[in-house]
Amino acid sequence: MEFVPQFVIPAEPNTSWAGGQFFGKDRFVIWTLVNIFFFCIATLVRSYNLNNNRSIYSGTTITTILCNEAQQLFAAVVCNNPEASGFRILPLQGSDNVQENEPVTYAIEKTFFDVWPLVEKSDSKFGNITITAPVNTNHLAIGYESGTICVVPLSLALLHLTEISNYIEKRDDVRLFEKAHPSAITCMIVPEHHVSGQQYLLSGGQDGAVKIWNLM
Question: What pTM did the predictor assign?
Fold first, then answer.
């Protein structure tokens, strides 16, 4: 049986369809990253343009369309911008009036920093963490911008990740390689294959060197 489309909705130049969803048997919404099109019985009844000209709200993305029990539609909008990344839930009008390309004015309702605040804190002795790598099921290797590598129990890393240097003195379950590289550690790997019962850690740094460390 040959598929024959009832109608075709071309995407605008320099964009593409990002999603679509039915709301009932005769209503559906499709959207690009910045435009929303509301259809009723295969007829376009309303469209919205969320392309905000303010640079702080650039990088707008419509992630999904929501519908509540009262059949009101909402657009979940993410604004990805270094100065104010966040999201907004925008109410959309129904099919009251036929209107195309209606501009939508909006501002960020909640920033991601408000929801998930980032803690910018570095170790007082080793500096900022640049790379981590699992050593085994119980230990984690941590590389720092100072060139130091520290292999610690996972429990210690989970509790005191940004202040490891204060908790590793006189511990038998910690391996410390101070100034393993003269500059930041950029990569680390622990091969699964053990040679003669020995376990090794390979590290690379901004100095361009690759070094091998015995963990046993």
Answer: 0.49
Segment 31-40, tens digit of pLDDT:
877 778 777 7
Residue with tokens 């539609």: 73
- 201: buried, middle or exposed (CB in 10 Å: 19+, 13-18, 0-12)? buried
CA 187 – CA 205 distance, rounded (Å): 7
Q: How far is CA 117 from the centre of its chain?
A: 14
- Longest C-alpha distance within the chain, in Å? 78
